[in-house]
Amino acid sequence: MAEDKKKTRTTVEIYGHPYTISGTETSTHIRLVAEKVDEKMREIQMHNRFLDTKQIAVLAAVNTMNEYLKIKEELKKMQQHLRNEEE
Amino acid sequence: MAEDKKKTRTTVEIYGHPYTISGTETSTHIRLVAEKVDEKMREIQMHNRFLDTKQIAVLAAVNTMNEYLKIKEELKKMQQHLRNEEE
Q1: B23, B53, B71 member nearest A54 (Cβ)
Q2: Could you identify which of A26, A57, A64, A81 might form a hypothetical disulfide with B64, taking C-beta atoms 3.0 to 4.6 angstroms apart as the criterion?
Q3: A26 and B CB contact within 8 Å
Q4: Domain spans of chain B?
């Protein structure tokens, strides 16, 4: 339904700075996403105290992209497996 | 096998800056991850020319985390579905 896809604007705090995120996700989902990015950045900073915020943010993106690509591959394999079973 | 899990150190360029990533992934995989983060940052920059690199990197992390959480949910549902079918 078109109603479900209405745009939201949510302001979140990540690593001490405000960001306004707009999109079709719910504000609750955006807040969860922001919380996880904030957590990841703080975790990276704890292990690499010499990095600046830009570097920490890039590494958080790298880390998340790595997990995303791995899980995407896992999902692809499972879908392939299901298709093979159906044939 | 322990051999498969040996540590690699790969230097990549993301958004014009070098990053040395260490981990158990292959260098080929790390280069792919870095390329995707670089692409995403350039895409964000194109749509938001007033943002600085730190903000672009944080938004790239947010964007990727959003996709990661969605695909993770999809995988969970599929696994649940398979378990229900097995019962």
Answers
A1: B53
A2: A64
A3: no
A4: 8-86
